[in-house]
């Protein structure tokens, strides 16, 4: 039964997040927000909603292992699995955007800050606020210094192109509220069922979080990036991965810590944290040298294989 609840609540969580992105975009469009601003803010927040809901719910329910492992696992999968598949599946990856100069360094900052603030085995409320401030800085950087339209903004156009001419604000707000309710309850049920599954299998909640929960909450990024890659829209695919990883640590983990400090023996999970750091450096290296090749994609999948093999050896 717990497995059924887990997958149903996960589906509800991901679907509700999509509803929130769609309705927020329509409301913002109605009030005259530009496509670029919607793409740079609402999409960044929206794609991180599943991780944020799961992390906050887990932390408030005294399950810090699930809260943190979800974020670490999601960041590893976004780079090692999603970017790896993007580079392998795309016919030709030649982004117009210079991701190294404009984005990948921003993806590295929160990872290094995460390592620093977890040295004392706690992510305090002040640290949570600092992480959120970093995301605000990134948003301001995009809006102030990056005047070119991000391709990810085209997602908003695709979503909004079927918007009816007659706009009903109360109706859209009601649907938006229902979306948030779906996210909250979906996350709660998913966290509870994940904990029960871990208990039944005799494994740590960390393992369930870093595999099952993180894979589930990474589904939006996985689907969007793979579809974009197959349509040869590499900028959107890579930008989505970088933005999601940035938001996972700053928004999701930052919000959870701001509500309640996260206390955990992080030294016990040094290997997983190290893999996240290595994956992020590989992302920076690939974008710096414009190595958007199948060989680079294979190297990322090799890192994922090593990570999963180590996880399998230490599953109990």
Task: Throw out a few tags for this protein.
316 residues, mainly alpha, A middle domain of Talin 1, 1% strand
Structural notes for this entry:
This protein is mainly α and 316 residues long. It has one domain (2-313): A middle domain of Talin 1 (Up-down Bundle). It contains 13 helices and 2 strands. It has a two-stranded antiparallel ribbon. Helix 4 runs parallel beside helix 10, helix 4 packs parallel to helix 12 (270-288) and helix 12 runs antiparallel to helix 13 (294-313).
Question: What's the topology here?
Answer:
Blueprint: H1 2-30, H2 35-47, H3 49-60, H4 64-89, H5 99-117, E1 122-123, H6 125-145, H7 153-160, H8 169-201, H9 205-217, H10 219-230, H11 234-259, E2 262-263, H12 270-288, H13 294-313
Antiparallel strand pairs: 1-2
Helix pairs in contact: 1-2, 1-8, 2-7, 3-4, 3-8, 3-11, 4-9, 4-10, 4-11, 4-12, 4-13, 5-6, 5-11, 5-12, 6-11, 8-9, 10-11, 12-13
Low-confidence runs: 147-156
CATH fold assignment: A middle domain of Talin 1
Sheet with the most strands, sense and barrel status: 2 strands, antiparallel
Which radius of gyration do the C-alpha atoms yield? 19 Å
CATH homologous group name: NCX, central ion-binding region
CATH class: Mainly Alpha
Order of helices and strands: HHHHHEHHHHHHEHH
pLDDT averaged residue by residue: 80
- The general outline is globular
Helix content: over 70%
- Can you tell me the number of structural domains? 1
What is the strand content? under 5%
Structural class: mainly alpha
Extended strand count: 2
* C-alpha termini separation: 22 Å
């Amino acid at each position: 039964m717990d497995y059924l609840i887990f997958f149903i609540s996960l589906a509800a969580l991901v679907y509700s997040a999509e509803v929130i992105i769609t309705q927020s975009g329509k409301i913002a469009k109605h009030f005259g927000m530009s496509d670029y601003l919607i793409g740079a803010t609402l999409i960044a927040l929206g794609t991180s909603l599943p991780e944020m809901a799961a992390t906050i719910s887990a932390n408030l329910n005294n399950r810090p292992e699930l809260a943190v492992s979800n974020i670490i696992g999601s960041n590893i999968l976004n780079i090692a699995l999603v970017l790896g598949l993007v580079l392998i599946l795309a016919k030709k990856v030649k982004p117009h955007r210079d991701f190294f100069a404009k984005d990948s360094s921003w993806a590295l900052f929160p990872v290094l800050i995460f390592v620093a603030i977890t040295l004392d085995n706690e992510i305090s409320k002040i640290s949570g606020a600092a992480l959120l401030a970093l995301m605000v800085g990134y948003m301001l950087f995009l809006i102030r210094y990056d005047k070119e339209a991000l391709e990810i903004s085209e997602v908003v156009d695709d979503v909004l192109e079927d918007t009816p001419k007659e706009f009903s604000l109360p109706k859209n707000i009601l649907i938006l509220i229902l979306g948030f309710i779906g996210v909250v309850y979906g996350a709660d049920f998913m966290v509870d069922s994940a904990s029960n599954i871990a208990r039944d299998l005799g494994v740590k909640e960390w393992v369930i979080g870093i595999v099952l929960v993180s894979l589930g909450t990474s589904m939006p990024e996985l689907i969007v990036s793979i579809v974009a890659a197959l349509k040869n829209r590499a900028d959107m695919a890579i930008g989505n991965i970088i933005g999601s990883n940035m938001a996972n640590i700053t928004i999701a983990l930052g919000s959870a810590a701001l509500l309640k400090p996260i206390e955990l023996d992080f030294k016990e999970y040094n290997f997983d944290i190290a893999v996240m750091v290595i994956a992020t450096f590989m992302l920076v290296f690939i974008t710096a040298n414009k190595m958007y090749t199948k060989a680079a994609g294979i190297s990322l999948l090799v890192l994922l294989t090593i990570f999963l093999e180590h996880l399998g050896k230490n599953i109990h």
